Amino acid sequence: MRQVSAQPYMFPVERHFDPKTAVLVVIDMQRDFCDPQGYMGRRGSDVSAAQALVPRIASLRTAARAAGMRVIYTREGHHPDLGDLPASKRAKTRRAGAEIGSKGALGRLLIRGEVGWDIIAELAPGPGETVIDKVGTGAFYATELEHRLRVQGIDQVILVGVTTGVCVSTTAREASDRGFHVLVLADCCAEPEQRMHDIALELLQVEGGYIAAVADSHALMDVLSSHFEAKGGE
Questions:
Q1: Can you list the domains of the chain with their CATH numbers?
Q2: pLDDT tens, 105-153?
Q3: Cα(177)–Cα(112) distance, rounded to whole angstroms?
Q4: What confidence score (pLDDT) does residue 38 get?
Q5: Whole-number Å distance between alpha carbons of 183 and 211
């Protein structure tokens, strides 16, 4: 049985890994989260950890595509009229010094259609790849993501992106509750503070990995490479 070496169990648990029933979900690799002039920078957060992910995610994406695995991207943002922005969320971002909808160097912060809202050029979706626009931290909340995965026969969800403790963790919990096998790649996720990143990963593995398994991207790439070779390197 070919599985991905992960903690606290081999992924997926008690079955084999199949790239055709798996998806790589690239979470919120937007300029607002990765560019120092965007939303996170406006909050005073260090985005260097997010920037360091870019080449690793790009390499992983290449391997995933070669093995026949789907890639889906998420993008957090709100409509320009702010009609979908909860007052509580707006207040919390205002308190942090980066109120959603306020003017920033890359346009209005976390507003659909603005420069900062879009996915960074290095990880721009390829032809035919899906982008899920979301208003919350989780990729399943008020989106068509679950429907798309069910229709495509996907039951293994692999998460990368930012931030580990918020959007990645929330999506992992949502996916687990919906019965998906969930794998989070530790070296392809980030928080502005390393300590928060480590805590978030630890919490995902509580109760024997009830929410998710955690691995290094190289462990997944090894398995993807074996699938690509089995296909004859097509």
A1: 19-32+45-79+118-230 (3.40.50.850)
A2: 999 999 999 999 999 999 999 999 999 999 999 999 999 999 999 999 9
A3: 29
A4: 98
A5: 9
Which amino acid appears at position 183 of this protein? L
Residues involved in catalysis: 28, 134, 167
pLDDT tens for 156-186 read 999 999 999 999 999 999 999 999 999 999 9
pLDDT digits (tens, 9 = 90+) for 214-232: 999 999 999 999 876 666 6
Query: What radius of gyration do the chain's Cα atoms show?
Result: 17
In the numeric block, which tokens belong to residue 37? Answer: 């002039």
Q: In what order do the strands lie in the sheet with 181-190?
A: 130-134, 70-76, 22-27, 156-162, 181-190, 213-215
pLDDT at 53 over 80: yes
For 9-78, give the DSSP string. Answer: S-BSTTS---GGGEEEEEE--BHHHHSTTSHHHHTT---HHHHHHHHHHHHHHHHHHHTT-EEEEEEE-B
Q: How far apart are CA 103 and CA 1, in angstroms?
A: 53
What is the per-residue pLDDT for 111? 98
Length of the chain: 234
Which residue has tokens 């070496």? 5
pLDDT tens string 7-41: 999 999 999 999 999 999 999 999 999 999 999 99
Two tokens, residue 30: 């937007």
**Token pair of 228 as six digits:** 């690509």
Spatial CA neighbour of 190 closest among 8, 28, 9, 42: 28
Helix axes 169-177, 194-204, angle to 10 degrees: 10
